[in-house]
Write a structure and sequence with these properties.
This protein is of the alpha/beta class. The protein has 2 domains: about 5-70, no CATH class; about 100-375, Rossmann fold (3-Layer(aba) Sandwich), CATH 3.40.50. The chain has 16 helices and 11 strands. The strands form 2 sheets. A 9-stranded mixed β-sheet has the order 5-4-3-6-7-11-8-10-9, sandwiched between helices. Strands 1-2 form a two-stranded antiparallel sheet. Bound molecules: S-adenosylmethionine (SAM). S-adenosylmethionine (SAM) binds near residues 97, 103 and 203. Pfam families: Eco57I (PF07669). InterPro entries: DNA_methylase_N6_adenine_CS, MethylTrfase_TaqI-like_dom, N5-glutamine_MTase, SAM-dependent_MTases_sf. GO terms for molecular function: methyltransferase activity; nucleic acid binding. This is S-adenosyl-L-methionine-dependent methyltransferase.
């Protein structure tokens, strides 16, 4: 990381004595000014909730402390306790990955595409009871945003929507449930949604043992179906499966992941576990074969997986081609809505590359999924 020039720090100090601290984290003055303003608003707002401590000295100390935390690289979202994901304010806590805007962009694009084609009367409509499964859910941001968009943009009734988020981490599940309650309380998500968060290990086909045993996805979903309001609708099939799994190889984590992410965000959410037989790249890709086989066995019509970059997108697309069950595969870049380079394809034209920016997700579809997505021949 390049050093900050003394004259830049001097200039920042003249504007505000706390600005050089925030500048250590942001590295540019305009962002540092914005962040310092947000941090001041945040500290004042917190203080106002405890009128007894309404003392200028306490406020100044608190503000200085959050600026020091920021200088040490603590993410703003962990300090302030939330991040926007699309239109939703999602609570963030240490130990659970902070949701990223690129993820929100891909999920929103998917749901807007489904909306366009559901307005087209010649196409097969989405099912009356739409089922969406999000694997590796973290804060629950994907199920929550999906639920919100289906009920707001699609005007789908909440009772016709079944959404489940799955994660291995108890911390993540606790936060996801808290986020759901917050969004219901503020009226962003309708009351009593059919939206649940379950614990399961998506990499394991058998249940764990012992006190804190983690169930396999199969048994978590079986148990859930048993108690679900829609239990009568039968077997565990999911129309749409989304996942933003851990996908960074250990080498990329060591070399390219920022200090702040390494220090503050959970490795469990970023790097797949080590398996002795795997090479470094394979370890980064570890989740995808499991996720694709889950999608195959749960009759998914559309699948959206986030990936690190175009190279990983191409490897995941090759895995999907190898399954030989999908009618189409697309790679979406960071901005999938931007006009793409005409004829941009990968893997000998078998995979269409959509939008502009870095490779961000792989979308596979089959059967009616093709019509739901509005893909033309
Ligand atoms: C990259 S984060 C994604 C979080 C969230 N979906 C998002 O987009 O912000 C990956 C998540 O996978 C979870 N995870 C890691 N290993 C898992 C496993 N074997 N089974 C289920 N979830 C797992 C982590 O706890 C983490 O919350």
């Amino acid at each position: 990381m390049p050093r900050l020039l003394p004259r830049v720090l001097h200039h920042a100090r003249k504007i505000d004595p706390l600005l050089p601290l925030v500048l250590q984290a942001t590295r540019d003055l305009a962002s540092a000014k914005n962040e310092l303003r947000w941090l001041k608003e945040f500290v004042i707002e917190q203080q106002s909730r405890h009128p007894k401590h309404d003392d200028r000295k306490v406020l100044d100390q608190r503000l200085r402390q959050v600026c020091i935390d920021r200088a040490r690289g603590k993410p703003l979202q962990y300090i302030m306790g939330s991040e926007y994901f699309g239109d939703l304010e999602i609570s963030c806590e240490k130990g659970v990955l902070i949701p990223r805007q690129e993820t929100a962009t891909s999920v929103t694009h998917l749901i807007i595409l489904l909306h366009h084609s559901s307005n087209n009367k010649t196409k097969t409509p989405l099912p009356n009871n739409l089922k969406l499964l999000d694997l590796c859910t973290g804060t629950g941001c994907i199920p929550l945003l999906s639920h919100y968009l289906f009920t707001s943009i699609h005007k789908r009734k909440a009772e016709n929507l079944e959404v489940v988020g799955v994660d291995i981490s108890p911390l993540a599940l606790k936060l996801a449930k808290k986020n759901l309650q917050n969004l219901i309380a503020e009226g962003t998500i309708q009351k009593k949604p059919n939206l649940r968060f379950l614990q399961a290990d998506v990499l394991s086909s058998t249940d764990g043992h012992g006190d804190a045993a983690i169930p396999s996805l199969k048994s978590a979903l079986e148990h859930y179906n048993f108690t679900s309001d829609l239990a009568g609708s039968g077997k565990s099939s999911w129309d749409i499966i989304i996942s933003n799994p851990p996908y960074i190889s250990p080498q990329a984590f060591a070399r390219t992941t920022t200090r702040s992410v390494k220090r503050y965000e959970p490795r469990l959410a970023l790097v797949p576990p080590y398996t002795a037989s795997d090479k470094d790249t394979n370890q980064g890709d570890l989740f995808y074969p499991h996720l694709l086989s889950i999608a195959a066995s749960h009759s998914a019509k559309i699948v959206l997986f986030e990936v690190a970059d175009l190279q990983q997108a191409i490897r995941v697309s090759a895995m999907a081609i190898h399954q030989n069950i999908w009618d189409g595969i697309q790679i979406w870049r960071d901005d999938p809505m931007a006009a793409e380079t005409v004829g941009d394809t990968a893997l000998d034209g078998k995979v269409k590359v959509v939008g502009q920016g870095h490779g961000r997700s792989v979308v596979v579809y089959r059967g009616v999924g093709k019509q739901w997505l509005g893909v033309e021949d």
